[in-house]
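dumping this here before i forget
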Amino acid sequence: MDISFEYYKVFYYVAKYGNLTRAAAALGSNQPNVSRVMKLLEKQLNCRLFLREPRGVSLTEEGRKLYSHVEAACMHLLSAQEEIGRQDSGDTGAVEIGATESALHLYLLEKMHDFKIQKPGIRIKVHNHNTPEILKYLGSGRLDFAVITSPCNLPENARYEKLLSFREVLVGGRKYAHLGKKAVCLEELREYPWIGLGSGTATYEFYRDFFEEHGTELELDMEVATSDLLLPLIQNNLGIGFVPESLAPALLQEGRLVQIPLACELPDRSIQLVSEKGRAGSRAADSFYRYLKGR
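structure:
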């Protein structure tokens, strides 16, 4: 089946905006022509892609399946087209990355700041999700690469390199100051409220396995979607939880947090740079990737 890329490009904008007129404006075309192209595409694919609604159009089930592939392809092609058209030095263009909250705060924010000073013409778009979601987006081709928190289950076709090792500590607010006097076992802490990242995140799975290895079970009283919510909740005496050691010193020194020593040792964690094997990225993406690796 030989279908023009222009048809898919028109489909991408119609699906993106959910409106023929807005899609036509983005394409520098007109509504009748966009409508004609969509009818031709539906005829060639032998299925209906859109449903008409009072304020635009919505995708059918077939349309959603097609868009999941066309979106990634168009984003890469349009980005490459823009990059080549503007300059061939590698100092312009766009890069799309996925990053966990911990990776952002512990490593990526500072690196992005320094990189942008060196290459201000390169635009960076950051998709902030948990590790499993980021790996899903990477596998679908929506991201150039990812910076994630490990340990986690990486796909076989992934290439990964460690950027940073870090440790986490168990902390509580002033209410839990009595727990900071001596090392305690995890089992002894079951009666206290726990705060942590929810199920489906790499961090939750890491601590679930850690608790099981030490003969107890992780039961969260309060689940949060992002790690930047942990410190405010713990600081306000809503429970105890694990946070990166490098983020806690100021609050510990001020007495707003108390470190709770454990009788068992927590294993190190790391920030990993992940990309797909055999997939070539844009020059902008390659430039940022090599910068993060220190090359």
